[in-house]
Design goal:
The protein has eight helices and eight strands. The protein is α+β, with helices and mostly antiparallel strands and about 270 residues long. It folds into two domains: about 80 residues, OB fold (Dihydrolipoamide Acetyltransferase, E2P) (Beta Barrel), CATH 2.40.50.140; about 180 residues, Recombination protein O, C-terminal domain (de novo design (two linked rop proteins), Up-down Bundle). The strands form two sheets. It has a five-stranded mixed beta barrel. A three-stranded antiparallel β-sheet has the order 7-6-8. Helix 2 runs parallel beside helix 4. The protein binds zinc ion.
Amino acid sequence: MGLYKIEGVVLRRRNLGEADRLVTVLTRDRGKITVVARGARRPRSRLGGRLEPSTRMRALVAEGRTLDVISQVEVLEANAALRSDLERLGVASVVLELADRALADRHPHPDVYRLLRTALDLARGGPLAVVWPWFAARLLVLLGHRPSVARCLLCGQRLRDAAVWSTTLGGCLHPACRAHDPLAVAISSGARALLAFLLDARPAALGRVAPGPRDLASACEILRGYAEACWETRLQAPGVVERVIGAPGQTSSAAPHASGRRSERAAPVV
Ligand SMILES: [Zn+2]
């Protein structure tokens, strides 16, 4: 049985047996792995507090017959900043859930690891408004699911004002081309512009975007549904966040410039 070192971010943890935990980690070099933290739920365990979701850490892992066992955890970035702020915690939980659901076990993805670290940094201390939809959009792109938002998926022509979104086909269509997906839904030009922005935005640009609340909510709903379709999953965290802190764009810090009808219709400012 061998030993290996990891650096990674804790995505998720579950109880196992009487006192252990199963911990899912996105590692820098080995992709997503799930390991056992023995005794992590015992009151005096030093492991337990070091393996909370969103914590970045280094550790030693011993190969086991069924599951590998983690030990010697050294915290590189704790999640203290998140625990004190429900909204930031909520955004981080959506980011972690998306990463967990999107990735297969033990496929290294250095780009996704960097993206996750950036998104969690933003969740800890950056402008929050579009962090999780940006992470979802970039994750879809990095994993080969870039949706078409500028041109009609069917006829290839550039879309103007009116368009519909098709989760099944993975992009936008002219209203005239929508017969190919009866489930396609109308998408505003503002939501479409926001999606186009999020798919390629650099993190530094996120603080300068000020989408209207309806466009933001629509883009979030589209990204959530599309991510669920691509990765054949149901996401829980976005719904929980919505119930606890309100729909995207309704909270004060989520839409600082979004009051009034004018900004509601405005395209994102980059
Ligand atoms: Zn068309």
